[in-house]
Design goal:
Blueprint (H helix, E strand, L loop, with lengths): L6 E6 L5 E6 L3 E6 L3 E8 L10 E8 L15 H13 L4 E8 L2 H11 L4 H6 L2 H8 L2 E2 L6 E6 L2 E11 L1
Parallel strand pairs: 5-6
Antiparallel strand pairs: 1-2, 2-3, 3-4, 4-5, 6-9, 7-9, 8-9
Length: about 160
């Protein structure tokens, strides 16, 4: 049984900026204000497809005001993702990562790649797709990716990366 104790505190990052964090058996996040956040949490909402084990969802925002904004000097998503997976895997049998792209570089990369590739391959060309693949998580079939479109253009993408 997972414990519900949640720790909240602040610390000073390498740049001297004050950051907050929250950690429990179901959640890990580091943030500064409302503009920057790295968050991983156990996703209790089951998808319409069959996926093994428990699901972790990531929300990674390291630029102020969107993709073209100022890059946070202390928040590094590529370092956070494996750390959060390790932490959450200690309490949960995680075999699936759920990611949702509604804006930012992943959606832009997906849209561009989808011009020449099928959705599964296009998702694997994104920054997140490459990182998740490197960590051993893959989209096993076209049924594991859902693309909502507006006038033929991907508006929102949900992808489920599953560990072998």
């Amino acid at each position: 049984m997972a414990f519900l104790l949640k720790f909240l505190d602040h610390f000073t990052g390498g740049s001297g900026r004050e950051l907050g964090y929250s950690i429990s058996s179901d959640l890990m996040e580091i943030y500064e204000g409302l503009d920057w956040e790295l968050k991983a949490e156990i996703d209790r909402e089951r998808p319409k497809i069959d996926v093994p084990g428990e699901i972790v969802s990531f929300f990674l925002r390291t630029r102020e005001g969107g993709w073209f904004g100022f890059r946070h000097p202390d928040l590094f998503a590529a370092k956070f993702v494996p750390l959060a997976l390790d932490h959450l895997s200690r309490q949960h049998p995680i075999h699936t990562i759920h990611t949702k792209w509604t804006f930012g570089p992943n959606l832009k990369q997906f849209r561009e790649a989808e011009k020449a590739l099928k959705p599964v391959q296009a998702a694997n060309t994104t920054w997140s797709g490459k990182l998740f693949n490197h960590l051993g998580f893959y989209i096993p079939s076209p049924q594991h990716i859902f693309v909502e479109r507006d006038k033929g253009k991907a508006k929102e993408v949900h992808a489920y990366f599953v560990r072998d």
